[in-house]
Structure formats: C-alpha cells, structure tokens
Amino acid sequence: MNFSETLSIVSEIMPDRVATVFDKDCTSYAKLSDEADLIASGLISIGIKPGDRVAFLDVNTDRQIKLIYGIARAGGVSVPINYRAKSSEIEFCINDSGASAIVVGSDYHEMVLSIKDNINCQLKLISFQSHGYADNWIPYGNIFKEQNDSYPQTDPKDPAIILYTSGTTGRPKGVLLTHQSLSASLLNNIFPDIENNEVVLLSMPLYHVAGIHILLASIYEGRKLVVQRQFHAREWLELIDEHKVSRATLVPTMLKMILENDFFNKANLSSLGMITYGAAVMPLNVITEAIQRLPLVGFINAFGQTESGSTIAALTPEDHTLTGTSLQVEKKLIRLSSIGKPLEGVEVRISANQVTAPPGQVGEILVRSDQIMDRYWNDNSLSSSVIDEGWLHTGDMGYMDEEGYIFLQGRSKDFIKRGGERISPNEIESVLLTHPGVDETAVIGEPDIHWGEIVVAFVIKSGNLNVTEKDLILHCKKFLASFKKPEKIIFIETMPKNSLGKILKTDLKKLYLD
C-alpha cells in the first residue's frame, strides 16, 4: 500500500470536509488529493522516476503537505531537511540521499545556492514561490500539470521517506521508512471517521517523525489540520482559541513555554481536549503543573524514535488522572515517569545479556513491528548492527513493571560506569527535578583516574531560589544509593538543545569538560 492511498480513501468518503488550514487558506480533502495528483504529474514531467529522492527545505506550510503526498504518488522518496540546519548539514543530506530535486522556501534560496557547487549530483532546483526565484529555478506553479491517468505502482516495502537524525554524535543518519512503515501504525490504530470533527494543531516540524505521524494520522482519520509554521508559545495559544483546536502535540520544552507564557491565563483553551507529548523526557513538575492548570485536558505520553517509525508505547489519559485513594495517586505519580505500554501491533521486550529480562530488571528496549525502519540509508553495516531478526535495538535502556509499564533508564551509551557500578543518568535527573530549586538538569559521566567515571550534574536553577551544590547533593543522598549521588553540580544559565528541546549531552561535555 502506498501511504498516499490513505488520503485517496478519505477524499472519497468526505470530499468537502476541510483537510488543512494554513494562514487564511482552507483546503478540502478532495482538493488536497487533486493537488497531490497534479504535483505527482508535474514531478514525473520533469524527470522524477520511481525511487528518486526529492528533498524539501522550508518551515511548515500546506504546500509541503501537498508535496509529500505528491512525491509518494509519483513513486518518489521524500527527503525533508531540517530548516534549522547549517549549510554543511544541508549539503550532507542532499549528497547522502542523492536527491534528484529540492523544493525550497524563499528564506532558504541563498543557502541552497551557496552549496550548489558542492552537490555531487544533477540537482533540479524548485522554488516554493509560485513565480520562481531565478532563471535556473523551476517555479512551484510550473509543477502543477494535468493529471496522469495512472501513476507508478508501489510495493509496500518500497522506500517512502528518508528522515535525517540530528547527528549529535557524528554525521546525521538517514532513517529509511517504507510505505509499510508509514501506513502500518495508521491501519493498526485508527480509521477514517466521518463523525470525527476534531481539529488538530500541527506545530511539530515536518522533518521530524512526530510531525510526519501527526500529518498522516490526522489526514487518515479525516480531521481538520491547522498548520503552524514554527512553534511560538503565544501564537500557539492564539491558534487554539481561533480555530477551536481539540488536539495538539508538544515536546516538554514547548509545554513548559506555554505554561510560562504571559498570555496563558488570557487564552480561551476550552476547546482543547487532548495534548500528546514526547520526543524528550518530561519533567515530573512540568506535567503535574500542566494537569493542574489544564484540568479539562487529557494527556498522552507517546514514546518512539525515528528508527521505530512512529509511537511504540503510550501512557494514556487515564494514567494522567491523579484521582483515587492516596495509594492510587501515589502509584499514578510513579507511572507518570513511565512511557506507558506498547501499542497495538508493536512487540516490545527488554533484553539483558541477550535474554528477555524479568519485570524490574534493566535492559535494552527492543521493538518488532511493521512500522520500524527498513534500514539506515547508505549504511548497511550500521543497519545490521541495530536490526536483528526483525528486532530493532533502540539503544534505549529501561525496565518493565509487573503490569507492562515501561520505564526509561537512559541511552545505553550514556550509562555511567563508576567503580564497576552502572548508573542511569535518568534516575539521578528524576531525583534532581523533584527539588524546587531545579528547573532543568542533565547528568553525565566525567572521566576519573580512580573511579573510571564520576557523576556530574548540570543544573539550571529555578527562579530566585538560592540553591547550592551541597543542597542538591544532600537531596540526592535521601533518595539514591550513595554511589549514585552527583560528585559535582555545575550551575549553568542555558542548556544546549536540539530543535525539539532534547538536551545535547555531547555538547555539554565539549563545553564544560574538555
């Protein structure tokens, strides 16, 4: 199944329903499908063949959405590029993917031109501007052609999209997802619903797997999708009010910025019924504050990674409802630090020493599902090291409790080895975040001649509280074994993060330890 067939299905069931809203432009499902066909025909007319890669670079727009479906119908492979990337990173992604064409927003024309001579392949330049940009650019309007009677046949296992990871530990890796990868989670978990009148706000970037999943899921279910160019807290609150948005997806940093925004108490959020969060660890104080200040909103913690293709486990709204006896509330508070249970169609097991670990024992999280990546683009060696007999080795460490809830314990490469003991940075970070004087924290291991590594915590203070290194070390000693407590607390003003708010521990080491 070509994933674009999900749009075809919905456009036949509810052709006149609004599919996307961008600025003041509304596009119906019928029009969205028709324009995807026109783009497919236009791409074929300029020489795009099945399997060719088509890159695009811009902030979120409805044109990107039409392009994604059009590329799929032409048999091509989408290559979204991070619009916050440096020119060298963009150059790498184009060369590594071997893109035949790139579609570029007006703000990025000059950047692409600056690297054009370093591109190893013949690259067609297409501008998202309707009337072009320069003589050597194809205007977006010229891509729209008369529809073909037929389009290339697609096998479910054909490549559909290459998503480049952030490359925080080296060069970016191209994660290849097939049409099966993109459609499996849709077919397993949702279905077109003509009675569903929900409005979804897309704030996650379309170069990220979460943004792609929100797009595909919203379209397949027949929801109205409101597109935000880039996340800004004040604008997000205004869009919820203006469009009566009922669902949104955020990363923890975004949610924190919304709660802290001066407009929060003035915004009408009565339509908002569900917030999904993920992509980074959610601090307990942030989610508990959100639950308190948004009592009519349900919350879902959706966990996945680019390589897993989409969400593999979720903590449900019921798990976020902090009601019941004191014992029940205490249990739910503990589970708020989990990622919930595996979704339908997804197998998860915890592997320790190559065997399935019993409940409570930490091991690597392995995933098996039709939605996982096919491979890393241009890196068969790395691919074979992370996919074994259908199981994806996520590199995330964790354990599963007796009832199947999964608790993360950090990345396998991030574990600290102190005097022969393996220490989870996540465990220490969770304890530090319970202190009222800690706003953000990240824990790493620093090389040490005697212990091998020692525990170092970077902390951003909360408000004007005069918290000291001694205060925080004593706080950790109350809840952790002595060997786990930080031996150094380094107070910093800002935390290096990627575009989705994930803390870059490699950058912390370079900045403060080298």
Characterize this entry briefly:
The protein has 514 residues and is an alpha/beta fold. A 9-stranded mixed β-sheet has the order 2-1-11-10-12-13-14-15-16, with helices on both faces. Strands 17, 18, 19, 21, 22 and 23 form a 6-stranded antiparallel β-sheet that branches. A 5-stranded parallel β-sheet has the order 4-3-5-6-7, with helices on both faces.
Features:
six-stranded antiparallel β-sheet, nine-stranded mixed β-sheet, 31% helix, 16 helices, alpha/beta, 514 residues
Largest sheet: 9 strands, mixed
Oligomer: single chain
Poorly predicted runs: none
Strand order of the largest sheet: 2-1-11-10-12-13-14-15-16
Q: What separation lies between the terminal Cα atoms?
A: 50 Å
Category from helices, strands and their pairing? alpha/beta
Helix percentage: 25-40%
- Gross morphology is globular
Q: How many H/I helical runs? A: 16
CA radius of gyration is 23 Å
